[in-house]
Automatic annotation (TrEMBL):
Parts forming coiled coils: none
Domain HTH iclR-type: 5-68
Boundaries of every IclR-ED domain copy: 69-252
SUPFAM superfamilies noted in UniProt: GAF domain-like, Winged helix' DNA-binding domain
Keywords: DNA-binding, Transcription, Transcription regulation
Species this protein is from: Amycolatopsis cynarae
Name of the molecule in the record: IclR family transcriptional regulator
Top-rank taxon: Bacteria
Amino acid sequence: MPRLVPAVVRAADILELFLGAETALSAAEITARLGLPRSTTHELLTTLVARRYLDRLSGEETTYRLGPKLLELGSRYQERLEFAAEADAVARSVAARCGETVHVAVLDGLDVVYISKIDSTHSVRLISEVGRRLPAHCTAVGKALLAGLPTEELAERLHGQRLTALTGRSITSRAALLSELDRVRADGVAHERGESNPDAGCVAAPVPDARGRWVAAMSISIPTSRHSEAAWRDWERLVREGAAELSARLGGRS
C-alpha cells in the first residue's frame, strides 16, 4: 500500500470533524478529539485558514468553521456530477436514434477519458467502458479535443511526446496530426477509421462551454461491418446535433 503523508492525513481529519453536528470547533476541542499535540494542531489550523479551507472566528474563545475554499471544491464536484448526468441523457438520446454506441469524453493531457457510454442495440457491438483512457491522437473524440486547444497549449502538450500507434492506421507523425487537426477545426467534426481499433471507426463532434472552449466531445462508434458513406453522413449529422444539445444543456454555445 502506498505511504500516506501524515500531515495531509491530519489536515483531512480536522476537516472531517465538521461532518458531525458542530459548525464551529475550538483548537482545544480539535486537539482533544484527534489526540494531536497542541503545536501540531496550531500549525495545521494556521495552514488551513491561510488556504481558506477554514475560517477563524473571534469571540470569547477562538473557534474554526469550514471555509469558502471547500464550497468552491464542492461546487466543482457537483458540476462534474451534473455534467455526467447530462452527458448520459444526451448520449442515450443519440444512441436511440442511430442504434450505435455513443461516448462522451474529456481530455487529460494527451489522453481521452470516457465519462459516458451508451451501448449499441446491435448484437455486434464495441467493448468499452466509462473511465477507459486512450491516446487522444488515435480517437475521434481525442482529435476533436486536441483541435480545440490553443496553439501554444497544444504545442506544449505535444513537445517531446511520441505518438504511439494502437493499430497500423494510427497517426504517428506530428505533422500528420497537426494537418488532421486543421481539418477538424475547419469541419467541426472528427473522424477515426480503424486507428484505435482495427474493427471499428468513430465520428465525433466537440461540446463547447459557455466561453466557446471545446471541453468535451461526443462520438458515435461503429464496427467496420456496418460502415457506408451514406451512414457516415447520417452519423455526422447526429453527433453534431447531440454535441450541440449537450452544450446547450450545460450553458454553452455551439
